[in-house]
Design goal:
single chain; about 475 residues; alpha/beta; Rossmann fold; Protein-Tyrosine Phosphatase, Chain A; about 35% helix
Length: about 475
């Protein structure tokens, strides 16, 4: 089992990649708990000024000479040997921790609620944090996105509960010691790290096995991977409490009658012993109702009354890049979504269909993320995108990867069963303006820089081009 580090033992902490959403969260939490923090990043970012205002000493650019006096160095996943500052930390013999280990240190002494899953973990973590804050429990939290209702991606609260988004992409969630776990789903992804789908599932099972006796596992009954995990824990760990949720008749907590309702999205949630509650959300889609049901389970376990939990969830206005409204022009609404796995893309487009209604059409601009993910899922991406009336496909966003022979965005575009196809970035706004009409919605979808196109689309729609 991975060694846990006490925050008090870390001394002066230097965080490399401090501008990233994950490392900046660790920095905020450490600063709030009185740790002396410095940091560095490759470029100047708005969040760096926020951290400076909180007391962090930060420099831009990586160099051996710039590494300050420190006892511990925390690094993001992209910091590797060959980075001069990282190599200098090695040469000094400094303690070097992964971001997840630094975050784990800030959780010490809390009741830790960890939210994991191939999809939905950011929104579910955000829902829980907003719900607990609305109810006055002042939680600590660390989330992989900024959340409008919270103002930041991380905060050290006065309460005993710490809510954390647990990232499975590199198995670093195994560094946490949760008291409660939410598993939204388990599917093949991040195969560049895991190699096989079986290894992905094994990692989630190892994470659930970290629960102590008396701990709580909340798992989605609609997802085969999460359901299988819940059943194994019930068999092998009878002292761990297990609750399942979903639209499935097999779920302990069942959702039904999901539909748009007065500009919101709502359902009934049957919550054991015949008790039923109404969930009403400001964000659309059955997948968000599922996320809210998981959050509701955590709220009750944390001592909330059902009415308080439902009211807190109703206040949630969404997380950054999760069906985020970007503007409206000529009667066409434009949204942005971080979806980068076929299941996520399908859920986002179904939500878009519910927002567009019976008369509106859905136009999507999709950017595949990673060559390896495109190689594994191009056919499934094309199938999901075919739910849209128009699907424009950009070149692959490579992120950390080098190109793979024969793997291009054309694999997705050529398999589409709807209007659209492969386009260049400079064509997008005009193509959308030609296709969209009043009452339609437009969605930019992907984990890369496709998000930057939303404002251009709104502007072009506004000119009537």
């Amino acid at each position: 089992m991975q060694q846990l580090h006490a925050l008090a033992d870390l001394g002066r902490v230097h965080l490399m990649g401090i501008g990233g959403v994950g490392v900046s969260a660790v920095a905020r939490l450490m600063l709030a708990q009185g740790v002396a923090v410095t940091g560095s990043d490759a470029k100047e970012l708005p969040v760096l000024d926020e951290l400076r205002a909180l007391g962090a000493g930060i420099h831009v650019g990586y160099s051996a000479a710039a590494l300050p006096e420190a006892d511990t160095v925390v690094v993001s996943s992209v910091i590797k040997a060959g980075n001069p500052e990282y190599d200098e930390a090695l040469s000094r013999g400094l303690r070097i921790l992964h971001r997840s280990e630094g975050l784990a240190a800030t959780m010490d002494g809390h009741h830790v609620v960890a939210v994991c899953g191939t999809h939905g973990k950011t929104t579910t973590t955000s829902l829980i944090a907003v719900m607990l804050r609305e109810a006055g429990l002042s939680p600590s939290f660390a989330i992989g996105a900024n959340v409008a209702g919270l103002g930041v991606n991380a905060e050290h609260g006065a309460g005993r509960i710490f809510v954390a988004e647990a990232d499975e992409s590199d198995a670093s969630f195994l560094n946490y010691r949760p008291d409660a776990i939410v598993v939204t789903n388990i599917e093949a992804d991040h195969l560049d790290h895991y190699g096989t789908e079986a290894a992905v599932h094994e990692s989630f099972h190892r994470f659930a096995d970290l629960l102590p006796d008396g701990g709580l596992l909340v798992a989605c009954a609609d997802d085969p991977g999460a359901w299988a995990l819940a059943q194994r824990i019930r068999r092998e760990r009878p002292l761990v409490r297990v609750q399942t949720y979903g639209f499935s008749d097999a779920a302990d907590r069942r959702l039904g009658d999901a539909a748009p309702e007065g500009g919101r999205y709502a359902c009934q949630l049957d919550w054991g012993s015949g008790e039923s509650h109404r969930l009403s959300l400001a964000v659309p889609g059955d997948h968000n109702l599922l996320n809210a049901a998981a959050a509701f389970a955590i709220g009750l376990d944390c001592g909330l009354e059902p009415e308080a939990a439902a009211a807190g969830l109703a206040a949630f206005a969404g997380a950054a890049r999760r069906f985020e409204f970007r503007g409206e022009a000529s009667g066409v609404r434009v949204y942005d979504d971080y979806a980068h796995h076929p299941t996520e893309v399908l859920a986002a487009l179904r939500a878009g269909r519910s927002v567009a209604g019976d008369r509106g059409r859905v136009h999507v601009v999709f950017q595949p993320h990673l060559f390896t993910r495109t190689r594994e899922f191009w056919a499934q991406f094309a199938q999901a995108l075919s739910l849209a009336d128009t699907a424009l496909v950009l070149d692959i966003y490579p992120a950390r990867e080098q190109p793979l022979p024969g793997v291009t965005a054309a694999l997705v575009a050529d398999a589409l069963e709807t209007d659209g196809g492969l386009v260049g970035r400079d064509e997008v706004a005009d193509r959308i303006a030609e296709a969209a009409r009043r009452g339609d919605i437009v969605m930019t979808i992907g984990a890369g820089d496709v998000t930057e196109l939303g404002q251009d689309i709104v502007a072009t729609l506004g000119t009537g081009a």
